[in-house]
Here is the input.
Amino acid sequence: MCIRDRGFCDTTPPDGVPDLAVDMEAGTSVTLSWSAPDSEGQAAFAYDLRVSEDGFSYSSWASKPSVSPVPVPGLPGVRQTVTVSGLVPGRYYWFCLRSVDSAGNLSNMSNLVWSGMASAYSPATPVGGRARFSGIVTAVFSGLAYVQRVDRSGGLAVELATGDILLPGALVDAMGDVAEANGERRLANTFILPLGQSDVPSPLVMRASSVGGPAFGQQGCMSTGLLVRVAGRVSYSSSEFIYVDDGSACPPGQVASGVRVLLPSGVAAPAVGSWVDVTGISSSAPGTPAVPAVRIRDAGDLQVISTP
Ligand SMILES: [Ca+2]
Here is the structure.
């Protein structure tokens, strides 16, 4: 826009804000902060902060509601904050900040930030509740990823939306509806925010009798969703799964002693009597009730130590 001021025509917008950040989420409000942009060496004239539940583009920005009140722009570089309230728990919100100078020149969009107004997942979260789970992706199957906490204290299956591409080692913040399949919890209708890339953690070594944890009548702590490692003798073998028996007691009523290990297609089943070292996700297989199972990712997860 050209407004003549002191004899010159100002067509230079303030700089875009590159460091908009979510500082705090509390109940129905979120606190954002950013560094005040440079407007030709001066403070900008005003901010326009917008909120959206489905992201932003330059063409959609103007149709999103503005947030008010927002602070008056400070001098370039000054850190500024605003608390946005009245948000609905269980939804996620995008925020985008732009500023204008006194001639009405509108800056570029800031970086986008996302706030998931959902509580962190815990086994006490009811099915149907909205929850959030952050961690490292350890395995990706068709339409499903397994995410575990960085400290390996828990894991969760996360349904992938069409087009979601995740690699093992991805650090993610996932939010979705808590659902259950085969006795195993998962997040459905998921929104996944990638945060970076790390290494896939080492598997947690456990006895066959601990796979799945108490939710499956097993011992120990809740291990569903974790990358684990079990070793033992093959007590049952079929093209789809084997049982690995390490001498620990497993729930009765299964086809063989030990814990079930699910084989992906193309992975040959070792014969009964083989000794194996298995890495995979502590998961479950359909049944009444569902049975605990280690879900291996690929042939490299099944090491045959000896054959009969
Ligand atoms: Ca200007």
